[in-house]
Each structure stands twice: as C-alpha cells, then as structure tokens.
Design goal:
alpha+beta; 6 strands; 33% strand
C-alpha cells in the first residue's frame, strides 16, 4: 500500500462518521491506497471518515478508513485508506490536482507566476512518473 502525503496548504475537511462496512484489506496490495494528511483532532484507527476538499473540487466527497493517527507537533498526522476502488481512483485523481496546485503555489513564492496548465505541464514532467499507480 502506498500513501501520498497531501499538501498542508490545501486543507482537507475530515469528519468522523458512523462505521461503514468496507471490503477487507489484505494489506499486501501495492499501489495507491490513500493519503496522509494533518488534522487538528485525533482519529482512532479503523474508524470511518468523510473527506472533502472544496478548494480543489466542491463536489469531492469520499469515505475512507483511518489506518493510523500519530501526534506530530500539536497536530495529528492521519493515514486514510480508500478501500472502495471507485473512491480510491477518485482520490488519486484529486490528489494529483492538489499536488499540481501546491506546485503552482510554491512556484509563486519563488517569484514564478504559472497558470494552472503551465504548472500541470511542469509537474507532470517532473513528478508524474513517481506518483503511485492505481493498481486494481
């Protein structure tokens, strides 16, 4: 399983929800499984969460399962897997968009003004090959 570190400058909204049944994970899958991100609160492993990201896509809303949650400097680093393949695929696509927007913002702090298409082209050339693949 591979987790992508979600950019801190694009905060996710993570909401605890009642337990939702998910397919059993064998833990041996390779490829994109989910994300790690920072949250203000602790989430217990195995709990179901709803994840939204209005800044990238106001309609983005998926349900995942907390794999682990560790305290790091007054906040919590959370790993969330998405056991439902369609949602996992959607998260991977939105995460790539998030990485591109983060890249564009970093370029701006360095005095480079890129529009989204320019940032996407550069990010794809530099990082797309190392982005975890979605493996069914």
């Amino acid at each position: 399983m591979e987790f992508v570190s979600h950019p801190k400058d694009l905060p996710l909204e993570i909401t605890l929800i009642e337990d939702q049944p998910f397919p059993v994970s064998n833990g041996k899958d390779v490829g994109f499984a989910g994300i790690t991100c920072f949250a203000a609160q602790y989430f217990e492993s195995g709990r179901s969460v709803r994840v939204t990201l209005e800044e990238i896509d106001p309609n983005f809303c998926v349900t995942g399962r907390v794999v682990w949650c560790d305290c790091e400097m007054n906040e919590y680093k959370v790993a969330i897997e998405f056991p439902i393949k369609d949602e996992c695929y959607c998260v991977r696509m939105v995460e790539q968009l998030s990485q591109i927007e983060h890249y564009r913002r970093q370029a701006k702090t360095q005095g480079r003004r890129l529009n989204y298409n320019e940032a996407a082209a550069e990010w794809i050339q530099k990082f797309a090959a190392s982005f975890p693949a979605f493996i069914t």
